[in-house]
């Protein structure tokens, strides 16, 4: 099969029901997170999140988290209405966020920032508020501010949810009060960001990328012939030329990239090359996230994944996004090593 031939359609009414942790995180729990002994902030974060989850269970038992259609909800408890996990890529933030989701009572939702904005786009703002306001917990992974409009949109949405008594949890590579730095200088947007940060207790998680601890850099790429031959032997494989795939991504809404990967067990790419522009790079970041969520190994020829983003891109406002994508693509490339036989 080829990803370039896929144009999936995802009905809007499936979006809320599918807001759960990706398959990679089905089995994660607080007990399966292994803190780095040299980074006490990691163990501290686990303890805080376990306490937060226990508080959610207690609130649900007392009726605070239940849906109320015909009467006013009681005032929400004082203090932060959520937790915010800040740290670099690969320190286990998504693992911890998914563990919180698993430990929390329902109804609950888990999605990336992009998925949340897509939900609002599909349902409309008020319907999205109504769909989520009866939840006990909403988790937002990889909080991003790629678009000023999305900043205002999500800030307003989360504010409405917090006022309704919904507890919030989020991850990002930047503290809430610093979101947007290096991208937007507008005082209006900074005020919007600062207002959003007031909803969260920030937890800093220090550490190095666990995917690279004691491991080599990106594996050496294969030849085009090796990629083609291996794809022919693999079950559930897709085979595409990298340039064609980048062009195809521009024709598919990023909210559908996950559906585009349905049924794909391994991705084979020929002639990987540096990404030509920022819009293309940002689309590739979303695809990398969806492949990583689904644990789909990637076999590639051409440029190694740790060299596909230019130095200029890595110095810009989306630096952390690109570094996350490199980290995840390199991990998926390592996962694919058993799929290719070299003489």
From TrEMBL:
Gene3D superfamilies: P-loop containing nucleotide triphosphate hydrolases. Keywords: ATP-binding, Cell cycle, Cell division, Nucleotide-binding. GO terms for biological process: cell division. One of its GO terms (molecular function) is ATP hydrolysis activity. This is Cell division protein ZapE. GO terms for cellular component: cytoplasm.
């Amino acid at each position: 099969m080829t990803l370039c031939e896929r144009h999936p359609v995802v009905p809007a009414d499936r979006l809320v029901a599918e807001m759960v942790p990706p398959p990679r995180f089905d089995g994660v729990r607080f007990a399966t997170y292994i803190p780095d002994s040299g980074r006490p902030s990691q163990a501290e974060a686990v303890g805080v999140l376990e306490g937060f989850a226990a508080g959610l269970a207690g609130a649900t038992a007392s009726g605070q988290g239940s849906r109320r259609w015909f009467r006013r909800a009681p005032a929400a408890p004082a203090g932060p209405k959520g937790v915010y996990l800040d740290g670099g890529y690969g320190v286990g933030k998504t693992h911890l966020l998914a563990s919180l989701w698993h430990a929390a009572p329902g109804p609950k939702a888990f999605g990336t920032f992009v998925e949340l904005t897509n939900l609002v786009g599909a349902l409309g703002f008020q319907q999205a508020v109504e769909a989520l306001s009866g939840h006990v917990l909403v988790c937002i992974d990889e909080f991003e501010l790629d678009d000023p409009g999305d900043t205002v949109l999500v800030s307003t949405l989360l504010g409405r949810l917090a006022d309704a008594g919904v507890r919030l949890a989020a991850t990002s590579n930047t503290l809430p009060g610093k979101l947007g730095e290096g991208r937007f200088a507008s005082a209006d947007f900074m005020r919007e960001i600062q207002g959003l940060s007031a909803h969260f207790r920030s937890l800093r998680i220090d550490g190095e990328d666990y995917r690279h601890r004691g491991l080599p850099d990106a594996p050496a790429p294969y030849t085009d012939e090796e990629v083609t031959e291996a794809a022919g032997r693999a079950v559930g494989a897709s085979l595409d030329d990298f340039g064609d795939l980048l062009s195809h991504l521009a024709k598919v809404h990023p909210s559908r990239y996950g559906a585009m990967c349905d049924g794909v067990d391994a991705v084979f790419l020929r002639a990987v090359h540096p990404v030509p522009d920022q819009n293309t790079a940002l689309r590739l970041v979303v695809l990398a996230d969806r492949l990583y969520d689904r644990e789909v190994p990637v076999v590639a020829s051409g440029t190694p994944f740790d060299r596909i983003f230019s130095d200029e891109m890595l110095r810009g406002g989306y630096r952390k996004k690109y570094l996350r994508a490199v980290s995840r693509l390199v991990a998926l490339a390592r996962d694919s090593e058993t799929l290719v036989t070299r003489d």
